Each structure stands twice: as structure tokens, then as C-alpha cells.
Amino acid sequence: MHTSPDMLAQLGRVAEEAARAAGAVALSGFRSEMEIRSKGRKDLVTEFDTAAEDEAVRVIRDAFPEHGILAEESGASYQEHATPRYLWAIDPIDGTHNYAMQLPYWCCSVAVIGSVEKAVLAAAVCDPLHNEVFIAMSGHGAFLNGKPIKVASLSNLEDATLAFDIGYDPEISGRMLSLAQRVQPQVRRVRLLGSAVLAITYVAAGRFDAYYHLNLNAWDIAAASLLVKEAGGIVTDWDAGPAGSAAGDVAAANAALQPQLLRLLRANG
After folding, report:
1. What's 125-147 look like in SS3?
2. Which pLDDT tens digit goes with each residue over 129-152?
3. How far apart, in whole angstroms, are the C-alpha atoms of residue 145 and residue 35?
4. How far is residue 99's CA from residue 108's CA, in Å, rounded to a whole number?
5. Per residue in 198-208, pLDDT tens?
């Protein structure tokens, strides 16, 4: 049974509330003394990543205790063999390196994926430092602080500004940096923001024209991908297949740029 309009509205409301709650916690710790721990060879986590995630999970659990949760710091709350009807993907602070280095490009991301629809149903991205909250519900458009947003209207990739990230895996990082060298001469500019969620969200807002990455987690893709789609854009993997509700490679742009972007990535990647 597909999600009813009333249920969709509830999912959207809770997604926004959870993202705002995580954002408030993260903002309270930004540019303060914090505990920074290593998470693998290249990645790191702060005490505020954990605290922000806990707060987002609390909001979701209060509203929907039966739903599944997939969060960056705490992992999955459900058994792998039991797919939940609704799965919440949470990135409490995307851009943790920026956050820890006191750089102002990070955000809190919350999305809910429907197992029947096999798609992201509602999403919220909170950038508390800049007082920006991006929200979307499937079929209802994308909004920034209550005002509709749209992807850029460029039609030629050579005039476009593209964003990308390199990730933490040495092989992926090497491929992404090598690819950037080949992409740069064929577009106006390339930019590395340090927050995949924020960069993809900026595609939805028309600030970047396109975004690409070889390997993102579900909590990196889910919320921002719905924002792009609801803002009139397209999000696929590099082979033009579905993307947004699971880990993998991703490319996002408007309808005119997307096929050009995919040809460029396939030719040079």
C-alpha cells in the first residue's frame, strides 16, 4: 500500500523537525572546543556528530517508533533480512572535516525512504550556520525557507560550474582527482565543497549547475537527491540508472545538462 497524503505530510514534518534538531545541536558546538576522534584512516567524528544524530533519532523515534533508521554514526537499527516499511537515512553533520576545522560548509541531512515506493518520500537539509532549511516531499516541490527553488537553466555543459568530492577511499580519491583534471578544461569551473549533501542541495537551489561522485553512502544521497528531483532536476548513477535511495555513484543536473554530464563522466572516468 502506497503512502497516503496524510502520512506523507507527517513524514515531511518529522524530517524537517529532526534536521532542525540536529542542526541546533551541531551549531551549539561549532567553533568550540570539541573532542575529535579518528574513524578509519582518513575519516573523523566529533562528539557533536554523535549528539546531533542522537537528537535527530529521538525526534523520529518519538513520532514513528516502528520505523527503521540508517544513521552514519550508529549504523542500522533493523535486521538486514527485515526491510522496514519506512527507513530514515540520517547524516548528522555532513562535512565533518569542515566542521572540525571551523570551515562554514556543513549541514544536517534527514530523509525517509519508502520500501513500497522504492524511493525517497520526504527530505530535509538544515544548514544552521547560514539559517537555511531545504525541504521536499515527493510530488510537492522543493523549498528553501518556505520559498520554491529550481535547478539552474543552463543548457551547455561548457558554461556550467560543477561540484564534486573526493571521499576517503584512496582509490576513489585518486580517480576523482584525476577526473577533475580532465573535466575542468571542458566546463566553466569545478568546485570541491567538502560536503556532498550541501553540494547536491546547491544543485537543487541553482547555485551549482551539476554534481558528480563515484561513491556516496545512502545518508549522503537520499535527502539531497529528492531536493534535486523536486526542484526539476535529474539524479542518476553514471550509467543513467536510478539513484537516490542507496549507496553508489551519483550525477545530478538539470534535464539539459544531465546527458552531457554523463557522456563526459563516461568518456573520462
Report:
1. EEEHHHCEEEEEECCCCEEECCE
2. 999 999 999 999 999 999 999 999
3. 32
4. 11
5. 999 999 999 99
Exposure string (b/e) for 194-221, b if CB count within 10 Å is 16 or more?
bbbbbbbbbbbbbbbbbbbbbbbbbbbb
Phi, psi of 255 (to 5 degrees): -65, -30
Summarised one tens digit per residue, pLDDT across range 66-121 is: 999 999 777 665 555 467 999 999 999 999 989 988 999 999 999 999 999 999 99
Mapped to the 3 state alphabet, what secondary structure does the chain carry?
CCCCHHHHHHHHHHHHHHHHHHHHHHHHHCCCCCCEEEECCCEEEEHHHHHHHHHHHHHHHHHCCCCEEEECCCEECCCCCCCCCEEEEEEEEECHHHHHCCCCCCEEEEEEEECCCCEEEEEEEEEHHHCEEEEEECCCCEEECCEECCCCCCCCHHHCEEEECCCCCHHHHHHHHHHHHHHHHHCCEEEECCCHHHHHHHHHCCCCCEEEEEEECHHHHHHHHHHHHHCCCEEECCCCCECCCCCEEEEEECCCHHHHHHHHHHHHC
Q: What is the pTM of this model?
A: 0.93
**Residue 26 is placed in which grid cell?**
551541531
